[in-house]
Amino acid sequence: MVGKSGDEREMRILTRHPEGKQGVNISREKYDAMREAIVQAVGGRGDVPLQIVREEVSRELRDRFEGSISWYFTTVKLDLEARGIIERVPGERSQRIRVREVRN
Asked: Left, alpha or beta for 43 (phi > 0: left; psi -120 to 50: alpha)?
């Protein structure tokens, strides 16, 4: 189960926020699991409604993730936006996200 190691020395990561707000310090193991699930849900599908991504991530992690999937989803999604890995689709009424194109 992700996040149930009990080791007090677990690796942690300080997340970022796309608006420059203070990030949070979370378990690296939980971050990596959530990051992988989000990127996989968005994948090469183009623009995906945020609610669809949230549902797919919840379904993927529900039986093996300790903690609030919704909270970690939002935290890691914002971090991925801040790092330029995913982006919000501009001009959409309901939020849609996509993997950001890498430009050389």
From this structure: left
In a domain, 21, yes or no: yes
Q: Note whether 27 and 10 are within 8 A (CB).
A: yes
Parent domain of 63: 17-99
- With CA atoms as reference, report the closest residue to 73 among 31, 102, 44, 104: 31
Tell me how many domains the chain contains. Answer: 1
CATH no. for residue 69? 1.10.10.10
2, part of any domain: no
**pTM (two decimals):** 0.88
Gap between the Cα atoms of 54 and 6, Å rounded:
27
Calculated CA dihedral for residues 2, 99, 76, 88, nearest 10 degrees: -150
Asked if residue 10 is part of any domain, the answer here is no
Q: For residue range 23-69, what is the model confidence (pLDDT) as tens digits?
A: 999 999 999 999 999 999 998 888 999 999 999 999 999 999 999 99
